[in-house]
Amino acid sequence: MSDPNNPNISIRTTPQWALMQREMFWAPNDGVFQPFDTEPDKVKELAKHRLTEQGWLYSSCNAGINWTHYANRMAFYRHQIIPRMLVDTNVRDTATELFGHRLAAPIGFAPIGINRIYHPTGETSVAKVAHELNLAYSLSSAGSYSIEEVGAVNQDGCRFFQLYQSPDDEQALSMLERAHNAGFTACMLTTDTWQLGWRHHDVHMGNYAFYHSHGVGGIGLNDSVFLKRLKEANIDPEKEPERAGQKWMDENIWHGHAHTWEKTKWLIKEWKRISGGRPFLLKGIQSVADARRAVEIGCDGIVVSNHAGRQVDGAIASLDALEKIVDAVGDRIVVTYDSGIRTAADVFKALAIGAKFVFIGRLWVWGLSIAGEIGVRHVMKGLLAEFDILMNVAGYANLKDIDRDAIDSLPRTAIMPTDAQVT
């Protein structure tokens, strides 16, 4: 177990996350039992049991027949950690810095929309836990609580506003201004979701919350430009919530209007003007050519992501894309990673390949679904403890030691065993 008097506790700048293991082993002696098992398959199974069918499908559906999702998991299997022995991990720390913010770990919350379908407290619980643990948080512009509410509960935390860019420029600028005024650290433009990918089960069920019970959510109905657009269309959101929700989504979020690099240059310029020069990232980058273009137009960072397999079926694994992109532009732009992360070993592998930071998605959504704020905290603290312990037992005292020499990679012809985890 982890000695509670270990000198490392006073040396490091972050909590001794590994102590959670000791606390959990001792807890039954005090009649204390944990909310749930944090093994990813168990978390997924319990979330499925707790959610409505619609909520479960929205959290779990992938594009097409799941090939991109499986490619993500296969890529993590192919890259394998090389443990090092007799390393002084008594001086280890998980702290990192991202765009000038000192954070407790290179692990953050990926942007996911309409959190209220998972738990009534939605984004507010997630943002609260992110602040408490000093982890980066991302709010989706398809969120179910307002930008202002989420910013307030996240307090002085490091937070990203993920933008689905409206083709209505006035509306897009309004969103950026609100994000800046609410203290968001950076703007993250998602580039792969002008419209949703074809997700068989969601489409079959008509499972699109904004057209139904959740309507326009807290972001649109707190936006002066959108309220003006509703008035122009003679839509009363209280009497016609479905029509208001339809207008919000069809015209501002998943609208089907593809933007271009030229339009992105404009957006960067406007965000820099509004925010006083705060960072701008592109999310959804998978090709080296696009990564180089992001550098050329002045992006501060990119998120290498295939939307966890939810957009393009049969696409390249995001981890394989990361390897090529880091080699091409890793010294010129902040490269972060998203897609398919389930364990601390997955985090380790993404960092080893060259990501400076890793965003987690479905794990915390399922935790939220199971037990709200308690569930999010339990999942994320478990992941942090697992990562801290992994650094200790694998012999890596510092994040900078986690590099390409820390992994051995099987050929792409390697096949993951049929009983391996593909959650």
UniProtKB/TrEMBL annotation:
Q: Which Gene3D superfamilies match?
A: Aldolase class I
Name the UniProt key words of this record, in alphabetical order.
Answer: Flavoprotein, FMN, Oxidoreductase
Named cofactor requirement(s): FMN
What the entry lists under InterPro entries is as follows: Aldolase_TIM, Alpha-hydoxy_acid_DH_FMN, FMN-dep_DH, FMN_HAD
One term of GO molecular function: oxidoreductase activity
Please verify whether the record's keywords include Nucleotide-binding.
no
Please list the residues that make up the active site. Answer: 307 (proton acceptor)
Instruction: Give residues annotated as binding glyoxylate.
Output: 58, 164, 199, 307, 310
- The UniProt annotation places FMN binding at 111-113, 140, 162, 190, 283, 305, 338-342, 361-362
Every copy of the FMN hydroxy acid dehydrogenase domain together lies at 32-412
Please state which protein family the record places this protein in: Belongs to the FMN-dependent alpha-hydroxy acid dehydrogenase family.
User: Know the name of this protein?
Assistant: FMN-dependent alpha-hydroxy acid dehydrogenase
